[in-house]
Write a structure and sequence with these properties.
This protein has 503 residues and is α+β, with helices and mostly antiparallel strands. The protein contains 9 helices and 22 strands. The protein folds into 4 domains: 109 residues, no CATH class; 78 residues, no CATH class; 117 residues, Sandwich (Immunoglobulin-like), CATH 2.60.40; 170 residues, no CATH class. Helix content is 26%, strand content 32%. It starts with a helix and ends with a strand. The relative contact order is 0.09.
């Protein structure tokens, strides 16, 4: 029951109770005022109510009523007159009117709260599932769910519902309610063996959606950002899917899969996005080939083991052009004055950020440290502009390597959410008048979370107490992400970043 419905029902019930009392009281008043008891001895014909005063009633020769001709006898002659009271009758009519109003309020409330979908034909309920009115579609979905549970659809209605659900599952039809409800109904029909073989095959084929995308252009020795989207469109019970990467190669040569984690669980999440930079080759056009082996298994009610309903190997061919340097115009660098005129988005931002350490083997990596320094440890941003992005350097941490190589320093950077551009910087340490490059960091502008990312570099010399960090916009760093196409163009400088030891 929705909030407030209890109060509405209570008030409607009270209105109905007092309405009935008023109806009874008004009815009694009308009867007493319009049909009172007869008083006196004046005779009247029982049939036509004619006044028989002056006629003698004898048993030998009974007279007839002058008005209607009915033979008059003692048993069919009324005695006495009715004296009607119009004022009292008017009061009774008023009470009856009030009573009808109170009862009508209760009746209208009951009609409004009644579930009329329960009495609707099944074909009409299925039609209303595609209504553009969200409330109508939601009510129809609730009734469909009830009838599916009670098995109250006729065979032709189940076939029609299955076709609609298959269209929603394959995203050929949009609906105003959650598509997961349609997918669950499909799973229920499949478990009851109420789908045709053709529908079973289509249902299983639509359960797994795999998409592979790659950035069309990459930079030499910087990798090729790729995205694997594994989307599960099957029901929560009775069906499971398995996905396995069987081939990943470029120009006929196998690529290493280190760092690439394809979800092989039976239950796949909805849109698991994985960014993985594959090694790039020499400048020029290249072709990346990716193959997935997919299998969908179903289990009917009462069955002890799953049955492989559908299996397929899907192949993706991705053309990639490797360039010596970022092409002009590939990444738009937004100047600071233009950035200040852009509005922030209230919605957060959705692609994983990437970072790279040029001194460590293995190239790019990313890390989010939940136990890292608190935001209070961050250095204050020094920038003369009125509005700058809320980028924070979380401090430099140094740990010993245990040998003569010195120490390893790591720097945490946190980016804001809701900004209308992305961020891609080369990271430098300011040392007097010169700057030393230590790595890069890039984050697409649609990322929702706000984690802290870390880069590392060797620190062979003595450990200073503070460092000056400079972030310069970098198109090359943006090219290391999957779809970043415009970045903030201001230079950010953080002075006196505190250096702390992790030992």
């Amino acid at each position: 029951m929705a909030p407030g419905n209890g109060t509405i029902l209570a008030s409607a019930g009270a209105a109905a109770f007092f309405g009935i009392l008023l109806l009874l009281a008004g009815g009694l008043l009308i009867k007493a005022a319009w049909f009172p008891r007869r008083r006196g001895e004046t005779p009247f014909c029982q049939k036509c109510r004619y006044n028989l005063t002056g006629l003698e009633l004898t048993s030998d020769l009974p007279p007839k009523c002058p008005e209607c001709g009915t033979p008059l006898q003692a048993r069919n002659v009324l005695r006495g007159e009715r004296v009607r009271r119009r004022g009292l009758a008017l009061v009774g009519v008023l009470l009856v009117t009030l009573g009808i109003s109170g009862f009508s309020y209760w009746l209208a409330d009951r009609i409004k709260l009644a579930d009329w979908y329960e009495w609707a034909p099944g074909d009409l309920v299925i039609t209303l599932l595609t209504s553009s009115n969200t409330q109508v579609a939601t009510d129809a979905a609730a009734e469909t769910n009830r009838r599916m549970h009670l098995r109250r659809f006729w065979p032709w209605q189940r076939a029609r519902l299955a076709r609609l659900c298959l269209n929603v599952q394959s995203q050929r039809q949009s609906v105003m309610v959650s598509p997961s409800a349609f997918i669950e109904w499909l799973g229920t029909l499949a478990s009851r063996n109420e789908l045709t073989q053709e529908q079973q095959d289509e249902f299983a084929r639509n359960c797994l959606a795999v998409k592979v995308e790659a950035r069309r252009q990459a930079i030499v020795d910087q990798g090729c950002p790729m995205r694997f989207i594994l989307e599960w469109r099957g029901p929560s019970n009775g069906v499971k899917g398995v996905v396995e990467l069987v081939k990943l190669e470029a120009d006929g040569r196998a690529l290493p899969q280190d760092g690439l984690e394809i979800d092989k669980r039976h239950r796949l999440g909805a849109r698991e996005i994985i960014d993985w930079p594959a090694p790039a080759n020499a400048p020029g056009p290249h072709t990346i080939v990716v193959e997935f082996a997919m299998e969908v298994q179903t289990r009917s009610l009462g069955a002890s083991a799953s049955i492989t309903q559908y299996s397929e190997t899907r192949r993706f061919v991705l053309p990639v052009e490797v360039l010596a340097e970022p092409p002009a115009g590939a990444i738009r660098i937004v100047p600071t004055d233009e950035f200040q005129k852009l509005e922030r988005s209230p919605v957060g931002q959705s692609v994983t950020a990437a970072m790279q350490n040029p001194f460590l083997p293995g190239g790019a990596f990313q890390q989010s440290n939940p136990n890292g320094p608190a935001p209070d440890d961050g250095a204050e941003l020094r920038n003369p502009e009125n509005r700058v992005p809320d980028v924070t350097v979380m401090g430099v941490h140094v740990r010993s390597t245990g040998d003569r190589a010195g120490a390893i320093a790591d720097l945490g950077v946190r980016f804001p959410t809701g900004e209308p551009v992305g961020f891609a910087f080369d990271v430098y340490l300011a040392e007097g008048e010169s700057e030393r490059y230590v790595g890069w960091v890039a984050r697409p502008w649609e990322t929702q979370q706000q984690p802290t990312y870390y880069i590392e570099w060797p620190l062979p010399g003595p450990v200073p107490e503070t460092m000056d960090v400079v972030l310069r916009p970098s198109a090359a760093a943006a090219m290391r992400t999957f779809d970043l196409d415009r970045i903030y163009g201001g230079v950010l400088r953080f002075d006196d970043v505190v250096v702390m030891s992790r030992d």
